[in-house]
Design goal:
512 residues, five-stranded mixed β-sheet, 27% strand, alpha+beta, elongated
Length: 512
Amino acid sequence: MSAPLRVLVLWFPDWPLRAALGGAPPHPPTALIHANTVVACTASARAHGVRVGQRRRVAQGHLSSLQVLPHDPARDERAFLPVLQLIEKHAPGVGLLRPGLAALRARGVSRYHGGEAEAAEALVGILADAGFPEARIGIADGPFTAEAAARAGHPFTIVPTGTARQYLSAFPVQALRDEQLTGLLVRLGVRTLGDFAALNSLEVRDRFGERGARLHALAAGADSRPLVPRPPDPELARAVEFEPALSGADQVAFAVRQTVDAVMLALGDASVVCTEVRIDLTDDNGLVFSRSWLHPTCFDAADLVDRVRWQLEALAAENAKEPVDEARTFGGIVSVRIVPVAVDDAAHHQPGLFGSGSDERLHHAVSRVQTMLGHQGVVTAAVSGGRWLADRQVLTPWGERSVAPRDPERPWPGSLPDPVPSEVFLPPRPITVSAADGTVIGIDERGALSADPALVDGAGVQAWAGPWPIEERRWDDAARRHGHRLQIVDDRDRAWLVFRARDRWWAEGRYR
């Protein structure tokens, strides 16, 4: 028998309960029933005497308030698919043993992270951040031993190479999960895997057959099962070619409607919805223009057609800005490929019993406005790091992932404390700040005003505070930015944030 592989097993305790209840443990006392028998129960139910294999009436006799739900294996698989995809992003080649239990070859991920312990610790952290703090990891020779190690109760357990037999020796024979064989072994006085492994292999084969010989090898730590990675997701991408090339955005958008419908049918057959899509446009020069699009919920056919149109409009705008090159004049699009990048279980996006709710109506309304105004017509705001208001404001088109270019949690000396102006001028707007005699106020090298502010933007000044210096990249003359800020309230009850730089006054924002 060939030497078993080093295998990393990820175990999610009570996964059928998590799939049924839809949240992380701890769970209320709950049992899943199939054929009037308990097939899974929560830790809180086990604390009251409920056990797997009990009849429903017996389990409810231990705990009258026990919540009883039907077991749905298909639901367990559907709920575990996003977890597999998450693991595969960080450790390719994951294989599904059963819902709640996955395995992969330990060599690749351990070499990437610098060791088996480092790899296990990294995966435990990733799963905890994703909402699976209960995940446990075992690394050993073969999936059987690795699963036993994962069930040891620690965040991760590593069984050194060549010690699988010694590690398994103290486990009860019930760990083999064969009721008929383990029941007979217990009656024969063989109660642990070590006792079973000590029996002669030829005699075990003669007495229990091939199945018994296989379990005997597992008890001895000789697990040679091949590890088969999870098969790839169904082919969801669709493409269309145009002859001759089409140059108009509306032409291409109309021509891809059947392709979009084919993508939606493929998603429907797989019982998933698309939350991120990549659109590849190939022009008549052979150049491919790719862009990924996100959606707050999930794409429908009209959304995909809109994304194709917006991408074409953006491509046309870029070509209009570039100098004309007779050698490769843009003649049009010869093919469009639509590739779903991220999918989710369709059951998570079904409308509620009494309708989709206000969030869904809001999404459809905003998406409709975006369709009329264009991709950049509707944006969402997020806060980024920086000292200037223009740097802290990040505007992202509706439906795309907002990525802050600078970490807002880092210290930014000189940045404005809360509350910040609700209106930000981008670019800053020229403004006049003058003294009572009409002269423009200056600021000297020590940061002192030449006079008290009396007028701002033609209105009288009621109150003011400052100035406060702000400076960036003083070591780089080309990129250096510096100035002095003032907060001013005029007699029209307008509150301004202004700054003086390059011998001029600028309005950076306005409070409302």
